[in-house]
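Reviewers asked in the last cycle whether our approach scales beyond single polypeptides. To address this, we selected a multi-component target totalling 569 residues and predicted its structure end to end. The input consisted of the following lines:
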Amino acid sequence: MRGRFVDKMLTAVCGLSFTLLALALVGLLYILSPGLKTLTPSFLFLSIHEGGVLEPTVGTIYLFAGGAAIVAPIGTFTAVYMVEYAPKSLLTRLVDRTINNLAGVPSIIFGLFGFTFFCKFMGLGVSLLSGWLTMACMMLPIMVRSVEEVLRTVPESVREASLSLGATKWQTVRHVILPAVMPGILTGIVLSMARISGETAAILFTACFYTMRGLPRTVLDPVLTLTYYLFIHVVAKPGELDMPSLFGLALTLFMVTITLSSAAFALRAYFRRRWRI
Amino acid sequence: MGLKGGRTDAFKLIFGVCAFISVVILFLIIAFTLKNAVPAFYRKLLTFENLWAAEYNKFGLYTLVASTAIVSAGSLAISTPIGILSALFIAKFTPSYLRDAFKTVVEFLAMIPSVIYGFIGYMFLAPAVARLFGLNFGQNALSASIVLAVMVVPTIVSLSTEVIMSVPREYEEAAMALGARGWQTLLHVTIPTAMPGIVSSVMLAFGRAIGETIAVLMVAGCPTKLSGPIWNFLQPVYPMTAAIAMGMGEAEAGGAHYHALFAVAAILLVFVFVVNFAADILRGRAPRRMVA
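The resulting structure, written as structure tokens, was:
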């Protein structure tokens, strides 16, 4: 009898812990919900000079679109090399280790690196371009791992069939493997974008500028993002934006990130089911 | 054939070069951080006293390192039990059709931008902590620990769930066959088998906690020195990452403050690498269920 009681207690304690986490998520949503009142079309599409958030929103889109465009081919090729071309080479093992380490590097360090390398050493200054390159470095692990996961699910027989028809390795990769792993590439891109859209520390000194007030005209102009805009209005200039605007801003950012992440999760779930991973 | 072979090699080379880029990036990160950190060491800018004030040229590591230690220990103290128990719940007590939904709930916590955590911590948590303990300011180690705990708990839950689920079924069935109850099996077979993986997930969470910047900065208070002993969770703290984020904006390139900040970054990088390396080794130790 005592055993059954302990069994039930254990289930209850575990369930309680999980409920606590679920409640944390619900609580966060509840706290952000007053922002809904501010979230009108005029708030989203008016310039920041007129009480809207157009520039930070567009800036965020610029930043993640460019970052993803840079990281997508590099990440895909890296994964293809590791799985298709040289699964056991020294370089592959080295890259595998590196990717793990890169994924663990704190974003503030990426920010410092972007500042010293892209902004100063390469002379790009605090600019959208520096932001893209810094973001691309940060997103590389996510991209590589996403593509790698799908590549490993392509059955060996598919490769053998292609090779047996006389296709070269490259033809196999180009016409058989890459089309098959498109979902992984897509998931990787969307997941990377979700990460970039919520990033603050790494763009603090690489892409954003305190006094920037418009949209970047060239890639060498600094950019304003939702995260940075929220950050400076809470930390550096409290009181400049009223409460409803702050909540609207936070909620806009939340929506952008969550939409992208949900899309990535949905894509991954859909393709996992299709491929029966 | 020769032509085709040559082309294949050319493509292999191109892909190989792309793969090598990540190695170059990591190398550059380390090299550029160290290059700017070295002057701080040979000019002996850093001390171990309890004062980090750039305007007086005082760069005492104690303030920052102790703050990081307090905050990450606090966040792990909260997130480890909750994370492991939740992982057990998802892996062992949840019907399989709900498992993915529950995992997604936890993954959502991980996707919320840190600046939103900081914002909520600043607006709600810090005032609540201040009221609860009768303080003037709620921006202190406790607030930072709570915010960080929510941010790193998904790491523990996701990885631990995976590890617990990959404990070979035969182990558990053997225990059950010997008459062990559910909780006895869990306590004496499942958890010990999954332990290296669980510890590894906590280590990874620790690595994330050390490196988290924006949310911590917004709720930690960032004083120039610690007013109380290291176990006082109601004092404002100034973690290493916060010092870098706050200082870089005003540090003059090549100045003492600039190099001191890079030295802090170098120390941070060493911490993170050591922690992740340990987590990597531990993860390799966990037994895996054989997949046919």
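The first strand of chain B starts at residue 46 and ends at 47. We regard this as preliminary and will revisit it once experimental data from Aim 1 are available.
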